[in-house]
Give the backbone structure.
Amino acid sequence: MKCRRCGDRAALELRRHNTAFCATHFVEFFRRQVAEAVRRHRMFGPDEKILVAVSGGKDSLALWDVLIEAGYRTAGLYLDLGIDEYSRESRQRCETFAATRGQELLVERVAEAVGAPIPDVQRATRRPPCSACGLSKRYLMNRAALAHGFEVVATGHNLDDEAATLFGSVLHWQTEALARQSPVLAATHPKLVRRVKPLYRLSELETAAYAFLRRIDYIVEECPFARGATSIAHKEALSRLEEASPGAKHNFLFGFLDRARAAFERTEAVTLQECATCGQVTTGEICAFCKLAARVRGAEPASTRPDP
Ligand code: Q46
Ligand code: ZN
Ligand code: ZN
């Protein structure tokens, strides 16, 4: 296999594009795909400061690397979920990455905001931790971006993540989730920041290859709660389809974005207001995050509650 650009020995074959690249030209291809995502969806302009949500994994650190190399002004945001060893190690990867590239890293602790680390939140809600975790992450990303004057938050969701989310939403015909499935979520209220996914055109394998070639030290282990999550089953099912028919994931996601998504867009406008407790945006009186925090704090054992 030879590199399509220079004819040297290829380091990576991209079956869904029916092509191959050497290391140098793969890095170039990867960055071009990000630039194309940014341009096509008008994710941000050259002067906008971008808050990059980083988990210490390959995707978010690869994204941060691409944006720094492209000359954007960025800062990282690490959300500490309080998941023992996993959180300690992933935070350390983010700190090292930021320090070696002279970038600012903001850190928010979920335990401080919601009242307990994610494993304890699970005990309090008696539900799988991922829904409370996802809710907390979205809330804290928006809050941190507003507090520090960022208009846009970028996350490291890749093509595999997006295709798996789409697959899950289609299996249950979650029409609201289908309407929100997009590489860009516009700010629909002055207290909401834009959320963008510049890696949505790149597969998990491609982000792993980019992180490897750029010598990014990332945490290989997944969050311990990811095991057994339905999203993993959806990813596996899609990967089997991809093996049988290269390009299946790409066609599934891009076909939806190009041809079907518009059909799910909301026709009636939702009224957004400010949460009576925290002031962030919600559709009800109290936002879902404040309800979660109240539940977690209410579930604390009596001995840990401060005296009235
Ligand atoms: S949602 Fe669930 Fe992730 Fe949160 S608890 Fe871990 S697996 S980190 S993307
Ligand atoms: Zn080449
Ligand atoms: Zn609130």
Notes: The pocket of Fe4 H S5 (ligand 1) is lined by residues 81, 118, 129-130, 133-134, 223, 225-226, 229 (CB under 6 Å). The CA atoms of residues 180 and 226 lie 22 Å apart. The longest strand covers residues 73-80. The chain has twelve helices and ten strands.
